[in-house]
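Priority: medium. Attachment 1 of 2:
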């Protein structure tokens, strides 16, 4: 399996924010159009601009496995320009207002505009200009935060169009030993896992049907996923495995392998699909003692999988333990991790966790034909064990 970081790094450097995912969509279209993939992966966008990458090498009509990740991190969109040249911006996504204190931000100035979601671009043409937070208004109810940003350096008052993307002023992705640090890991690293899995399925000529569903605006409350689930944009019989990054926990730390996420803050997920993932992970670990995995409730947040499960889809989840969740700097973080103010830092994942998750999902996808969304196989095994080993003993050692 490749350990090439270029797709992961390129993807995690693309400008993106909730409702402003055009550049990531363009990158993914470019990726899928590369010669080694263009005959294997078909890209569709649905009515709201979610991307569906279809790998269909299995028998027609054979069950399709859906892998799912989201295209947006928390971020800024410029809303208006104030008379003094400062910018009024909206910030969507869960970041504590206190973290905005003295934080540096950058605004993306594109050289050309993309047609969403149809254009293709390996690297978005444009550049970042630095600015900083002047003030932040605490949100009321479900409203996003309102932020005032200084006039970006090098840009005249009035030179920043409404709708421009703002992100924390953090450098391009880098590695610190086995730690991958980027402006965004949530969930572009999850998207990258999906892309690497598709590459592995192509390399193995796997005879399966897999859909990689990449949703928009998760950070505002699962907007793209809810459009899919509520409008039935994928078949009701689909099994869905959500791929996320989720705040590392004391019992789910970084570097201990990918996490089979039995649930999030809101729900626990499909017992049968979760068990299928555990069985596949256990099978890999049996043949390779270096393969690590974890099975945990990751209740640091709610994810798209809850949206799909609530609408009746057979849904499971996996994740990578995330450092500096939503860029909120942790007190004990590695001193080499880049920051953009006293409380803002790059998000991090562990690269062995990343490639472990690619391996697990490739195995699960390649063997998805053996999955049944009920407990029939487990029930048969337990019933056989009961008949063979237990029944006679229960009956011969009566206590009354
Ligand atoms: Zn996420």
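Attachment 2 of 2:
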């Amino acid at each position: 399996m490749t350990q090439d970081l270029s797709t992961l790094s390129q993807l995690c450097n693309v400008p993106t924010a909730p409702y402003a995912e055009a550049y990531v969509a363009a990158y993914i279209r470019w990726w899928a159009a590369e010669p080694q993939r263009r005959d294997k992966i078909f890209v569709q966008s649905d009515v709201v601009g979610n991307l569906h990458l279809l790998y269909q090498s299995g028998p027609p009509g054979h069950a399709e496995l859906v892998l799912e990740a989201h295209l947006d991190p928390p971020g800024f969109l410029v809303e208006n320009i104030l008379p003094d040249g400062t910018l009024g911006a909206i910030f969507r996504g869960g970041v504590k207002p206190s973290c905005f204190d003295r934080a540096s931000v950058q605004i993306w100035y594109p050289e050309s505009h993309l047609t969403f979601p149809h254009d293709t671009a390996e690297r978005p043409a444009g550049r970042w200009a630095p600015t900083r937070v002047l003030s932040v208004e605490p949100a009321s109810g479900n409203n996003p935060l309102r932020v005032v940003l200084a006039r970006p350096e090098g840009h005249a008052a009035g030179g920043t169009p409404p709708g421009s993307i703002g992100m924390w002023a953090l450098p391009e992705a880098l590695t610190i030993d086995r730690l991958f640090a980027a402006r965004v890991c949530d969930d572009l690293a999850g998207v990258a896992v999906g892309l690497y899995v598709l590459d592995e399925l192509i390399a193995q000529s796997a005879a399966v049907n897999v859909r990689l569903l990449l949703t928009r605006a998760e950070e505002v409350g699962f907007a793209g996923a809810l459009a899919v689930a509520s409008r039935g944009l994928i078949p009701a019989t689909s099994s869905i495995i959500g791929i996320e990054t989720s705040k590392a926990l004391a019992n789910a730390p970084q570097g201990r392998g990918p996490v089979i996420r039995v649930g999030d803050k809101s729900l626990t997920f499909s017992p049968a699909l979760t068990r299928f993932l555990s069985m596949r992970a256990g099978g890999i670990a049996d043949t390779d003692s270096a393969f690590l995995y974890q099975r945990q409730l990751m209740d640091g947040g709610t994810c798209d999988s809850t949206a799909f499960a609530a609408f009746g889809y057979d849904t499971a989840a996996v994740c990578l333990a995330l450092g500096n969740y939503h860029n909120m700097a942790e007190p004990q973080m590695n001193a080499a991790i880049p920051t953009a103010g006293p409380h803002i830092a790059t998000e991090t994942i562990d690269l062995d966790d990343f490639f472990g998750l690619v391996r697990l999902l490739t195995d699960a996808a390649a063997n998805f034909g053996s999955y049944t969304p009920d407990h029939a196989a487990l029930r048969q095994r337990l019933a056989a064990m009961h008949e063979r080993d237990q029944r006679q003993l229960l009956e011969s050692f009566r206590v009354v």
